[in-house]
Amino acid sequence: MFLHAFLVLGLVAQSGSGSTGSNAPAKEIDPRAATTSVARAKRWTLEQILDALRLVETGGEKDGGRNSTGDSGGAIGPYQIHRAYWIDARVPGRWEDCRDPRYARAVVIAYWKRYCPKALEALDPETLARVHNGGPDGAREKSTLPFWRKVERALAKQAEERAAREAKAKRGDARPVPASGGKEDPKPAPKPTDKPAEKREGWV
Predict the structure, then answer these.
(1) How many CB atoms lie within 10 A of CB 26?
(2) Residue 98 gets which letter from DSSP?
(3) Number of domains the chain contains
(4) 36-59 pLDDT, tens per residue?
(5) What's 154's domain CATH number?
(6) Which of 32, 70, 76, 106 has the fewest CB atoms in 10 Å of its CB?
(7) Percent of the chain scored above 70 by pLDDT?
(8) pTM for the whole thing?
């Protein structure tokens, strides 16, 4: 009997020292999972991401960035596309065609489809911006973070401008009801003037 009780106590003690004890290994946490950035907090359209990218690359020039040239002539057009980037995108045409906004847009999207299709499908602006800036492995390169921060600010500015426009539109729709019971007040009568009447020929 004493031996039976001893065995029972031993089993209870053993069951209490499971994986929840203090010696259990800590669960690894992906630092990116806790990131609270524009990319994680909001949902963007493809056009909004492309617009932010263009604003960062060419400053939103009036000509749409057609004549923009950077990197000592090595990058051209609204999205500052290099020749190697254009070749990798595999879009029929010429590199010089990247000055055209519509063609350049097609090149950028084709590049994303090749090197970060999941990010393109999810519309993840951070990955898209960093791959555009740093190449196929740009999303893992620290050197692309400053570029992403600029795109992030451009997206936030776009959101603020859209919110302001929507608020203004709502204020315009909510016009006060006229005092005449819903009907427009008649036009006020013209105010009298002290200016003497103009004398014309034929007048008595």
Answers:
(1) 5
(2) G
(3) 1
(4) 445 454 589 999 999 999 999 998
(5) 1.10.530.10
(6) 32
(7) 63
(8) 0.64
